[in-house]
Amino acid sequence: MSVPTRILISGATGRMGRTVARLAAADPDFIVVGGLDREGASDPPEEVPEVATPANPGSLLGSADVVIDFSAPAFLRQVLTTRSESGDTTGLVVGTTGLSSEDRILLERASESAPVLTAANFSVGVNLLLMLAEQAAASLGQRFDVEIVETHHRRKEDAPSGTALALGEAVASGRSVDLDEVRRDGRSGRPGPRPDGEIGFHSLRGGDVIGEHHVHFIGELERIDLTHRAEDRAVFAAGALRAARWLAAQKPGFYSMRDVLGL
Fold first, then answer.
1. What structural domains does the chain harbor?
2. Average pLDDT, stretch 107-136?
3. Annotated catalytic residue: which of 152, 202, 214, 228?
4. Is 152 annotated in the active site?
């Protein structure tokens, strides 16, 4: 029998944190050692034996093989600061989106002494979609206009979603261009004709939609649509646990779900 991977859940009382805890507790390959959350957070899930704040994690950081983070950018920065100050080298799986360039620098710095894996989306299907989007963009070139449309629940705070931006990066990579130079977020008024090579983003918010992403390649005579719909947020938690299991055996470095899936 293999040795279980010990995980610490950052953002333990959030929707994703609770889902990770529930799936991990039901899987003999994992042990939930505790969680991190803000002071005064709602009651932790019963699967999490102890919850501390990032400022005072006690012995929790050192007791885990991997930290799984589904929190918020500001909270993640607190976790990274505590890790840096304490010299912690526990593996880190990050599913938090809406990160700034400064946040990414902190993560890259952390990867110098610990294995770090970040993903805008942990589902196998989305990661295959990323690969397909890049391949399609490379094959179709500038002759097809690209529009990316994403829909999420009304409580989501960032837009476009991290997955939509990752899809945009995949398309830009396939075209060998810089996304920041061709990105267009929405249209209104009289924006004029669509520039060649532009990659458009559109965000819809409403209800309790878990996540839906479309990449439209629109040509003069035909259109290709790539679509992914998440039916249950457990798909993201399951992917994060798979990533944590894999990351626990890796050396310090910066990894992605492509490494986990061998894509």
1. 5-122+233-261 (3.40.50.720), 124-229 (3.30.360.10)
2. 96
3. 152
4. yes
Does the pLDDT of residue 1 top 80, yes or no? no
10 Å CB burial of residue 74 (0-12, 13-18, 19+) is exposed
pLDDT at 164 over 70: yes
Of the candidates 153, 156, 213, 228, the residue annotated as catalytic is: 156
Per-residue burial over 135-157, b = 16 or more CB atoms within 10 Å of its CB, e = otherwise: ebbeebeeebbbbbbbbbeeebe
Q: What Rg do the C-alpha atoms of the chain give, in angstroms?
A: 19
HSE toward the beta carbon, residue 128, CA cutoff 13 A? 8
251 in active site: no
pLDDT of residue 124: 93
pTM: 0.84
Kindly state the average pLDDT of the residues 83-98: 93
| Segment 11-44, tens digit of pLDDT | 999 999 999 999 999 999 999 999 999 887 778 8
Distances from the Cα of 211 to the Cαs of 59, 175, 227, 239, in angstroms? 36, 26, 11, 15
Please give the structure tokens belonging to residue 47: 């699967």
Start-end of H helices in 53-211: 60-63, 73-86, 101-110, 124-140, 162-175, 179-182
Percent of the chain with pLDDT over 70: 100
Answer yes or no: are the C-beta atoms of 100 and 77 closer than 8 Å.
no
